[in-house]
Amino acid sequence: MTDAIRLTGVGYRPGAGFAIDNLSLAVPEGAIYGFLGPSGAGKTTTIRLMLGLLRPARGQITVLGEAVPARAAWALGRIGYVPERPHLYGFLTVAESIRFHAAFHPRWDRIWAAELLGGFALPPDRPLGRLSKGEMGKLLMLQALCQRPELLVLDEPTDGLDPVVRRELLSAVVEYVAEHRATVFISSHLVHELERLCDWVGVMDHGTLVTQMPMSQWKNGIKRLRLTGPVDRLDGPPFTVLAQDGRMPGSVWIVDQWEVGMAGWIAERGVQVDAIDDLDLEEGFVERLKARRAGR
Amino acid sequence: MFTALVWLQWKSSRAWIVAAAVVVIALPVVSVVREWPTDPYAMAQFLGRLEAWSFFYPAPAAAVGIAMASLTWRADRAGHFIYALTLPIERWRQVGYRYGAGVLWILAVSALLWVAALVVVAVTPVPSSLRSYPHGLAAKFGLATIAVFTIGFALLSLPDRSRRALGTAAAALVVVQVVATLAGWEANWLVAVFEALVGPTGPLGMLAGRWMLIDV
Amino acid sequence: MTQKQPGLLLRWLDDVNAQSPVPLYDQIASRLKAAVGGGVLADGDPLPSVRLLAGALRINPATVVQAYRLLESDGFAEMRQGAGTFVRLPSSEQRQREREAQARRLMREALAEGARLGISAKELRTAWDETIKERPR
């Protein structure tokens, strides 16, 4: 299986303070890859590097087999991009903007564009400068989808939109993917949205990748354990301890790299395992980030 | 893609294009109709009065050139060029197409001037001692406008950093000139730069000189 | 099958929860089984297309495929190449097995939740017997 996006040892420093440092990341073809990270982690900068908008100081970027930024123009014809902030020409109307965009994309899907225009209830004759935030989000998504991309790059596509619009946009993305088997790279801080959608997760913090893995591995690997007994006897465990909380009667441990059968290892040491709970994506994200920042 | 960019240029600067079209059609018609002498022997005065209209050609040429250049990238500037840069087209090609789109509209306006000039000349009984220059006038208008547009387009297509450097260099030149003048040196670089630009061989030299539809 | 049935089905499925420890595909499959058992879906009815269902629930299309595969292996559906997935009425024996599995699942969930709150199995059983007795018939 090849990668739709691959970054290897990428470095970029836009100014003092912030920097992307030794960033390596791989998005398998056909994946729906959720890109998480606190604001200011460098998610948008990473996306701009992928699209060839910024030139990395170090490292290699390959998108859909094309070297970026050198051959970005060829890759861009196959990428649908929804930016964090709208960037379209405000003096055009909705219909004009769509027509202009279509002129650059030979695989443009006119029929679906007309359908989505109606489905999204977009006013064709309204200038973009007078669109609401939700309408602008829909237009950006329409333009990105109807160019029939092999890769969708969505940078906070639902940020600041109401739940109804968010659902409409995500449904359109899923329907497209179900039909065309495209790869999706989606950055969002609405973690619960990604949880049901993504099959890969990558986490970024302070300009570098903290972790990336398939969603199933992510969800199975991290557990919350409730333990009673002499927990200080649990020395050198086969799993990683992300956090410990011993204030309750018994202890609560958050552990990573958990595997079935490890409860036996704990029981052998005279500690009772009362419960092994799953964490949802958001909890897991927070715990992994906290542990990383604490240097564990 | 080029067609789309030509259309985009029309959408962004159509007010200027239409205004320029009206002006260049009106200029030859109004100037000749107003100044045409009732006395056939007053041709010398006619030429003198027509020369006074000479200023009205380069002014719209410069205005349209500057306006078109500044409107080409204006919407992109608001969006930090992200849309333009994510269109699937090489950067040099897009810059070329955008420039070409501007030139095309300038040529269209010049063509209107040409047609208006030809019509005016055809219906005016120009005496044998005088000659008419509809082709020359339209060509001069087109080239002058394109020259202004080119300089403006080049400046506005530069990255912000290069443009700032250029501005700083220009400001430094002025400062050095002022200091030099106060120190009593003879050197006069500002005038030299100005002449290099607007002089007969300079890129903007086209704007100066005589703009006469009918002349000796 | 009538046009309004997909909408009806989607309402059955609308509360699938990605945060739950039960995998999404499993939740979808058991809800669809319940729909078959409850007569909402009849033998031969087409299930919504992967595109439609994934889009409506905003979940990964692969999850829907996985759910349909599970339904098929449990004898509740049949995937026909290129045509879609169709309901198959399972044998009464299969249905009975499925009901038992569902009941066991419910009990396991109660036990797990009890353990989390520090309630023993014995206490749960007492509570269960009392609740059954109280329930109006």
Structure description:
The complex is a heterotrimer of chains A (about 300), B (about 220) and C (about 140). By secondary structure, chain A is an alpha/beta fold. In chain A, about 30% of the residues lie in helices and about 30% in strands. In chain A, β9 (about 200-205) and β10 (about 210-215) form a beta hairpin. In chain A, α4 packs antiparallel against α5 (about 135-145) and α5 packs parallel to α6 (about 165-180). The two termini of chain A are about 35 Å apart. The relative contact order of chain A is 0.14. The model of chain A has no long low-confidence stretch (mean pLDDT about 90). With about 220 residues, chain B is an all-alpha fold. A two-stranded antiparallel sheet of chain B has the order 1-2. In chain B, α1 (about 1-35) runs antiparallel to α3 (about 60-70), α1 (about 1-35) runs parallel beside α6 and α3 (about 60-70) packs parallel to α7 (about 135-155). Chain B is flat. The termini of chain B are far apart. Chain C has helices at about 5-15, 25-35, 50-55, 60-75, 90-115, 120-135, and strands at about 75-80, 85. Chain C has six helices and two strands. With about 140 residues, chain C is mainly α.
Summarize this, please?
The complex is a heterotrimer of chains A (296), B (216) and C (137). Chain A is of the alpha/beta class and 296 residues long. Chain A is built from 10 helices and 14 strands.
Notable traits:
A: about 300 residues; six-stranded mixed beta sheet; 10 helices; 14 strands; B: about 220 residues; mainly alpha; two-stranded antiparallel sheet; about 0% strand
Helix content of chain A: 25-40%
- DSSP strand (E) fraction of chain A? 25-35%
Q: Low-confidence runs of chain C (pLDDT<50, min 5 residues)?
A: none
Order of H and E elements of chain C:
HHHHEEHH
- Biggest interface, residues from each chain: A-C, 24 and 24 residues
Number of helices of chain C: 6
Structural class by helix and strand composition of chain A: alpha/beta
Describe the SSE topology.
The complex is a heterotrimer of chains A (296), B (216) and C (137).
Chain A: E1 3-12, E2 20-28, E3 32-36, H1 43-50, E4 58-63, E5 66-68, H2 72-76, E6 79-82, H3 94-102, H4 110-119, H5 133-146, E7 151-155, H6 163-180, E8 183-187, H7 191-195, E9 200-205, E10 208-214, H8 215-221, E11 223-228, E12 240-245, E13 251-256, H9 262-268, E14 272-278, H10 281-293
Parallel strand pairs in A: 3-8, 3-9, 6-7, 7-8
Antiparallel strand pairs in A: 1-2, 1-4, 4-5, 9-10, 11-13, 11-14, 12-13
Helix pairs in contact in A: 4-5, 5-6
Chain B: H1 2-35, H2 43-52, H3 58-72, H4 74-78, H5 82-86, H6 91-123, E1 131-132, H7 134-157, H8 160-182, H9 189-198, E2 214-215
Antiparallel strand pairs in B: 1-2
Helix pairs in contact in B: 1-3, 1-6, 3-6, 3-7, 6-7
Chain C: H1 5-13, H2 24-37, H3 50-57, H4 61-73, E1 77-80, E2 84-87, H5 92-117, H6 121-134
Antiparallel strand pairs in C: 1-2
